[in-house]
Amino acid sequence: MKRILLIEDDPEVARLVEAELKEAGFQVDWAKTGMEGLIRHREGKPDLVVLDLGLPDLDGAEVARRIRATDDTPILVLTAQDAVDRKVSLLTGGADDYLVKPFHPAELLARIQVQLRHKEGSEVLAVGQLELYPGKRQVFFREREVRLSPKEFDLLHLLMSRPGRVFPRPEIEERVWGRPLGKDSNVLDVHMANLRAKLREAGAYGYLRTVRGVGYAVRPGRREEEEEG
Predict the structure, then answer these.
(1) What is the mean pLDDT of the chain?
(2) What's the whole-model pTM score?
(3) Which of 68, 98, 114, 123 would bridge with 77, disulfide CB 3.0–4.6 Å?
(4) Residue 46, preceding bond cis, omega within 30 degrees?
(5) Among 49, 134, 29, 54, CA closest to 94
(6) Residue 223 has pLDDT above 50, yes or no
(7) What are 77-114's pLDDT values in tens digits?
(8) Number of helices and strands (H, E) in the chain?
């Protein structure tokens, strides 16, 4: 399930956009100011940002520049300004696309899907010699494919999106299964054990880290020795 960060200070517009995105199957995180949006972007690692220009604290173009300085997350700008020079400024300043208000929700969804396809088609996540291609849903270690089940792939994709970060179990369950699995469920543990076994079989030792009682992570940097726990 793709995550969209919506940075919009107008509650009426935000509720409309949020409802449409959720109806289309996205998870939505709503920030009401530019600074809040930057914090949520840094902490939440969304798949795409929908950014309004008319924010109460920071100019939306400045928010886009700050995001682009550290990350390649697609940015779709909502603007009331239709001037050509303003559009050019947005696109050269970090935005990937723009939509002039008022807009139809169907057009917003279409533009979001285009940006997500572009990102998935070119993206590769790499940690050491372990490579994951989201668009193709393929994983390679030392240029040999590691065949994973859909859920195993989604788990590895999530962990490799932020190497070194320990993802808590509730967050993993919500982002991979879309719901809590239950206090006594061992579904996550079984999938992680299978994923670890397949990586070991391929020779990819030391990439997965278990933090007991908390969650899981992918170790940043190349690790070839046996993992702990």
Answers:
(1) 87
(2) 0.56
(3) 98
(4) no
(5) 49
(6) no
(7) 998 877 777 677 777 777 888 898 888 999 999 999 88
(8) 8, 12
Q: Is 127 exposed, middle or buried (0-12, 13-18, 19+ CB in 10 A)?
A: buried
Q: Is 41 exposed, middle or buried (0-12, 13-18, 19+ CB in 10 A)?
A: buried
pLDDT for residue 124: 83
DSSP annotation of 53 reads S
Phi-psi region at 219: left, alpha or beta (left = phi > 0; alpha = psi -120 to 50): beta
Determine the Cα–Cα distance for residues 228 and 109; give it in Å rounded to an integer: 43
Question: Which token pair is 118?
Answer: 């572009």
Pairing of strands 130-133, 138-141: antiparallel
Q: Are 169 and 180 in contact (CB under 8 A)?
A: no
DSSP string spanning 185-206?
--HHHHHHHHHHHHHHHTT-TT
pLDDT of residue 11 exceeding 90, the answer is: yes
| Percent of the chain topping pLDDT 90 | 57
Long-range Cβ pairs for the range 80-86 (8 Å, 24+): 80/53, 80/54, 81/53
